[in-house]
Amino acid sequence: MVTRRAVLVAAPALLILPARANEPLPVLASFSILADFAREVGGDRVSVDALVGPGQDAHTFHPAPGEAQRVARARVIIVNGLGFDAWMDRLARAANFRGTRVVASEGIRTLKARRHHHHGHGHDHGHHHHGDADPHIWQDPKRAQVMVRRIAAGFSAADPAGRAIYEANAARYNERLEALHAWVEAQFQSIPREQRRVVTSHDAFAYYGERYGVTFLAPQGVTTRAEPSAQQVAQLVQQIRRERIRALFLEDMANPRLIEQIAREAGVRVGGTLFSDALSPPDGPAPTYEAMIRHNTRMLVEALAG
User: Fold this and answer.
1) Global confidence as pTM
2) How far is the C-alpha of 22 from the C-alpha of 15, rounded, in Å?
3) Are 201 and 250 in contact (CB under 8 A)?
4) Could you give the C-alpha distances from 26 to 17, 42, 111, 167, in angstroms and in order?
5) How do residues 249-289 score in pLDDT, each as one tens digit?
6) Are 276 and 136 in contact (CB under 8 A)?
7) In this structure, is residue 211 part of a structural domain?
8) Residue pLDDT, tens place only, 58-75
9) Cβ distance 54 to 287 under 8 Å?
């Protein structure tokens, strides 16, 4: 009997200790792609939340009044930087955030953002406050590896006891990103460089384009505000022919009939939807960063090979 009683007395103490020691590190990322990196690096030691979730647009995000509380509860916040998610820094100031702030783009070579002449485009407005750097660095898996290392360093600073775990997780994930990069390169192998020309409605793919030799062109004179005029459509058709473009990805132009008409007149293929700034919900084609890059690559290759 004595032994049994001793076990019962000891048991509650055993239950209390691990719960306290294993409280996961509360992490808040500005948007879904950074949150995916953070989960890979942190594993069980962290609990990750994204302010801008899957399928939501970080460009047009306006934080609700309660969002500062979410920042205040976090021990680590992760931002992209380069003006992409400046609202996160404003929230951190409002919340008097005292934890670790990770800027994932730090130390990464940037490309200049392209300036558009059509300012009716919904995506442009969030994008003209950040000097001249294009913020969409995650579209290049090699740069993504640097982002992952930055996140691991931030977690290690906030939770030094977990350093070995964070570094090992980051190294393992970066091996997968290296394999992903090699896979993307292999997909484009059979497509001559001069054939890798695409029109997209959102200028988010310059880093991907630089890495894999794909030229992404923005449509001239097309905005999402209004139905384009016959003259604008004719201009776009001319641009596609003149620049020998193979594929159209105009995901923001909600009218598929129009896209099909342009494609028909220009003699090119409609490529489908590319994911630029947000992952899809879990049941979509791009629930993780790796799935997003694979999906975009398959879409591009399929359209360009046609």
Assistant:
1) 0.85
2) 11
3) yes
4) 19, 10, 32, 18
5) 876 666 778 888 888 999 998 888 899 999 999 999 999 99
6) yes
7) yes
8) 877 888 878 899 999 999
9) yes
Q: How many domains does the chain divide into?
A: 2
Dist CA 74 CA 29 (whole Å): 10
Are 234 and 195 within one domain? yes
Query: What end-to-end distance do the CA atoms of the chain give, in Å?
Result: 79
Residue 75: CATH number of its domain: 3.40.50.1980
Is there a contact between 271 and 198 (Cβ–Cβ < 8 Å)?
yes
Same domain for 83 and 194, yes or no, is no
Phi-psi region at 55: left, alpha or beta (left = phi > 0; alpha = psi -120 to 50): left
Does residue 136 share a domain with residue 74?
A: yes
| Domain residue limits at 154 | 7-179
Which tens digit of pLDDT belongs to each residue from 125-140?
344 444 689 999 999 9
* Residue 1 domain flag: no
